[in-house]
Amino acid sequence: MPERTPEDIQFEKSLQLLMNVQFEGMDPAEAQFMWSEAAKIEAEYKDARTKADDKALDDATRKQFKETADAIAKALPGITKGAFSAAEAFKKGDNLAGAAAIMDICASVVPIFASFAGPVGAGVGAVVGAIFSCVGQILAFFGPKQPSLGEQIQKMLETIEAEKELANLSGIHSAINIYTEELDKTREEIRAILALPLNTEADADKFRTDVKALEIGVIDQQGQLNAAAFENWKVGGWLKLTENQEKERWPEVLGAWCQEYIHLMTANTRLNCLANPKEIARLEALTSESNTASPLSKGTRKLVHTAVVEGLKPILKFLTNKFKPWNNEALRLAKETSPAAQERGLYVLMAPWASYGNVLYVASGRKNGIGWDYKKNTGWLKGFSINVPRAQLGSLTPVYEMIACEDRPTSIARYRVHSTKGDPYDGVRLMEEGHQYDNIGGGTRQFANCVDAWALPDFEDPKRTRIYTAHSTGYNYVNIHVANADNTVKRINWEPHTAAGLLHIRALVRDIRMSLPDDPDAAAMRSGLHEIIYGGYRSSRNIWVALDNSWVDVPSPWDGYNGIAVDAYCLWVFGSKGLACAPHTSVIRCKNRELPSPRWITYTTGWHDGFDVNALSPCADGTLVVCSTQQDRNTWTPNCKVNLKEQRIDLTPWERRGGWGPEIQKMPVPCWSMLQSLKTNLLKD
Length: 685
Prior knowledge:
Elements: H1 6-20, H2 28-52, H3 59-92, H4 95-109, H5 122-142, H6 149-194, H7 201-240, H8 250-268, H9 277-286, H10 298-321, H11 324-343, E1 346-353, E2 357-364, E3 373-375, E4 380-387, E5 399-407, E6 411-418, E7 424-432, E8 436-438, E9 444-446, E10 450-457, E11 465-473, E12 475-483, E13 489-491, E14 502-510, E15 530-537, E16 542-547, E17 550-555, E18 563-566, E19 570-575, E20 578-583, H12 584-591, E21 601-603, E22 613-618, E23 624-628, E24 635-637, E25 640-643, E26 648-651, E27 655-656, E28 663-667, H13 672-684
Antiparallel strand pairs: 1-2, 1-28, 2-3, 4-5, 5-6, 6-7, 8-9, 10-11, 11-12, 12-13, 14-15, 15-16, 16-17, 18-19, 19-20, 20-21, 22-23, 23-24, 24-27, 25-26
Helix pairs in contact: 1-2, 1-3, 2-3, 2-5, 3-4, 3-5, 4-5, 6-7, 6-8, 7-8, 7-10, 7-11, 8-11, 8-13, 9-10, 11-13
Transmembrane segments: 120-142
Protein name: Cell envelope integrity protein TolA
Keywords: Membrane, Transmembrane, Transmembrane helix
């Protein structure tokens, strides 16, 4: 062995450190294999160093041994550092940092390939093979684990279980349909009874017979409905079990249950129309003992009166009151499942991949933590926006649309996104920098310098998508394009300019008179849909606002901020000072010079140094998703309620979610609006 060089010393230290990395959970046999490969690397490396100085070998072979040994000596510190970083990151639950460390391991191995430029002897092949085997073992340990047979069986059973609950709800749906039809028949039967003449003994006999038949029919009808209700409450019990709330298809079952109970409530609106109370009162008076003007005998009148008071009226009262305890139980179930529904939903994150650019990660929410999954089928990202196409509204498993602002080249791409798994697919590039696109009404415009994009279903044509883009190089402006189902696009010939440094764009279309409680500015808004566009700046305290073909900057609550976000009721801003929101109503009044500033509500309680909000997404389910630039770089989710009356943002304790990036968006479980609608209607009942 030649004299030890600094590279040899570094190699030995790095190899020793690598063998001391704590790969928690690694199979003992796999760990033993990795250590034996590491020992083989050391032996073969020393052999390669010796042969690099062996004068008995020709110059080309010695050179090959030297270059390979040098490459391994340089690569091993990076491999060791990456292994340490990956082990620590995954231990803390930071999957993104772990993935970046794995990328560092792979990057460290790349230079070794250069050692194969010429003929390779057996010794060189052995040392290279050993190091690749060792690295492969590390990557296999950190890589996605294939589910065990037991896990596969468990998932299959969970799927069968969910399908069983959905099948039960399908049966309940059929039962409610039959019940609805029977209610319509009952209404017609009651109307026919109330219209019967009561002039003869035969009329009285028919009246009493029809009331009795109605009573028997209602008893039979309710028996069938009770059987369906029993199955409905069994499904409700399944939904309330905590262990079921973690299962993949739990939101789908919850949505189907909500659909069916709303279906039942809709059917029960017919109960109030079964009979006119005035008609019942008229019939009671007509058959009363005191009505001596009746052509019926006193005894017959009494029999008919008894049929009204003890037959028809109790039936109507029973049907009207029957569902009050059911509705109370349904409300309890809706309230109990809401927290679990808030935990669920689809999280989509744009995060840096080493130093190369931003890529896409997705996760399905779980109470016991979420695992970010890297999606490889998008381009490098500048920003993204996910929306629910109009045609998918009401679906329990909708397909979302993602509009991505991509880099290298700058372009706007469209993807479909699976609402549960988050897999983007059917990607197509809609616009690309340097290309000309038609204007609506004639002419063309070049697409250039796009820094961010946002998208919504078009409010004029629900089959189209409205894409808002921010452009910032040389001069700053906003564009709107409409994308058709066939992926053709046209530009709206409107190009408002902004101040320098435009970086973010957000938009919403909404009747903002439908505001939060206690909003002092709601009454000043005109009714109807408003298209509001917001622009965030890189280095300014202002926020750009456009509405009704006019635009102006309004002040944010701070001297500077990191970004903006929107929900149905508020504009949000976030940065090193925390987070803040202002109702859209007050922002518009400020834009119109009716207020000096939007009515900002800031959140600072418990804020601490170093927690700089890097990204924020307010979700329709009442949660906030926040990426911090705190030292550990993490994603957090509190529940959020904006209290306008007391000018306060109320947040529950922050839950750590792992992952980090410059942009994030959370989509609620598809049934969330249905669940909220059910609760609202039950509270009114």
